[in-house]
Amino acid sequence: MDTRHLIRISATALATAGLLISGCSSGGSSPSASASASQSPVPAALKTYYAQKLTWRECGASGFQCATMKAPLDYRKPERADIKLAVSRKKATGPGRRLGSLMVNPGGPGGSAIAYLQAYAAIGYPAPVRARYDVVAVDPRGVARSEPVECLTGKEMDAYTQVDQTPDDLGETDKLVTSYKKFAAGCAKRSAAILPHVSTVEAARDMDILRAILGDRKLNYVGASYGTFLGATYAELFPARAGRLVLDGAMDPSLSARDMSRDQTAGFDTAFRSFAADCVKHKDCPLGTGTPAEAGKRLKAFFGKLDAKPVRTGQSRPLGESLATTGVIAAMYDESAWPELRTALTRATGGDGAALLALADSYYERADDGSYQNLMYANAAVNCLDLPPAFTAPAEVRTALPTFEKASPVFGNGLAWASLNCGYWPAKATGTPHRIAAKGAAPIVVVGTTRDPATPYKWARSLAGQLASGTLLTYDGDGHTAYGRGSDCIDTAINTYLLEGTAPQNGKKCS
Predict the structure, then answer these.
(1) What is the pTM of this model?
(2) To which H or E segment does residue 58 belong?
C-alpha cells in the first residue's frame, strides 16, 4: 500500500469500525451544558491557557514546526492539573492573502492528527488551500503524542485481537467477556488519571484554546469520520467562533451506541456488496464469479472454516476468523485496496494467511516488532466516554443479534459482539446522544459518500439536517470520505468554500 492509502486506512477511518472495540463514537455533553458554553467569554480560570505562547521548533520533514500546548486536564477544575498536547503546523506557502489556520483531524477517534498532517494533509491537500492557510493539527488528548492512553503490552494486544468474536457457546462467550474485562483493566491500570478526561467535548474545548493561541478569530477546520463529530461538537459549543467547517464522512450525534453500531454494520455490508460486485467480474475472484450475494455466502463460509481451523501466516500468529474479518473490513475503506484484498483472500483460501494478516495489522497499527500504536486504546477510551454502552451483558447481544445479522449476514454477528466492549469500561460515560443544531454558526459543509462503509450516507443527511446552517454535499461513490479522493466536483466545491467562503448548494451531488 502506498503512504496515502496507509494514512487513510490507519488514521482517517478504521477505528470507527469497532470490530474488536466499540461502535463508532458519538455523543458529548448534554444540550443544556453545551448551550451554556456557546456564547460565554473565556472564563477567568482559563485565561492563562488562552493567553499562552507556543515555542515552535522544526520537526519532521522540512517546513514543519512542532510545539506543546497546555490545557486543563479537567475543565470543571482547571486549577488542579494540566495536560500537554502536541501541536504541529506547516505555514502557508503563498501566493495570495493568508486566510489564517486550517485545523485538520483524520478521525478515529484515536487517529494521530499530526501524523495525518505531516504525511498527507500539509502536502496532499490542493495547492491553493495550502498556499493560503497554515495547516495545523493537534493530537487530541489521550492520542499519539498527547499523553496517550495505554492499555496492553504488544503480546497482550496480539492475544486480544485473536479472541473469537463470534462465540458459539457459553465457554467462548466467557472468553470474549474476559478479554474485554482484561482490556479495560489494563487501561485503568496504565491510564487511570486520563481516562475520565478524553471526551469529545473536552477535545473540542482544547481546539478553541489552540484557535486563540494561533491568533484566529474563528476556527477553520476539515474533519474526517469521527473528526466530523469533533467539528460538530465545536460548533455546538462555540457557534460564534465556527468559521469554515468541512465535515467529511459525517457521523450522526443523535444516535445511541447500539443504533450507531447497527447502522455501521449495514454500511460495511453495503461496501462489501460493492466490492463483491467488482470481484465477481474477475476470473480470479476468490469468492467465485456468481452474484454478490453468493460471494457473501462464500466469504462467511470461509470465516467459519477459519473459526474451526486457522491457517498459517509464517508468524506465530495464525489467521483465524477474527483477524481475517479485520483484514477484510480494513480493505473496505478504500476501493484502491480491493485488488490487494482479492489477492489476500486467494492466498488465504489456499492456506497462506500472511497477506490478510498484513491488512489486519495495518488496521490495528501493529509494527513489525510487535508493538502497537495507541489508536485502539484511545478509540475505546473516547467511545466509551462519549456514549453509554451499546450492551452491558451477553444476553443483550444475543437478543439484538437478529437485527445485526439482518444488517449484514457476513459481518453482523462479529460487529454485534464487538459492541459489548464498553459494557465493562472503568470510566462512566459522560455524553448522551443528542441532535446538534449549532445555531448561529456560519455555513457548515457536511459531506457524505453513498457507499461509505464506516459512516453510512444517511448519517450525513441527518447531520446536515440537524445543523441550523448545514449544507449537504454528496459523493456518489465507494470508500470512506470524499475530499481528495479523485472527484474534481467534490474537491472544487470544498476548495471554493475554504478559499472564498461560498458553500455549495445544499443537496449538490458529485461523482
Answers:
(1) 0.93
(2) strand 57-58
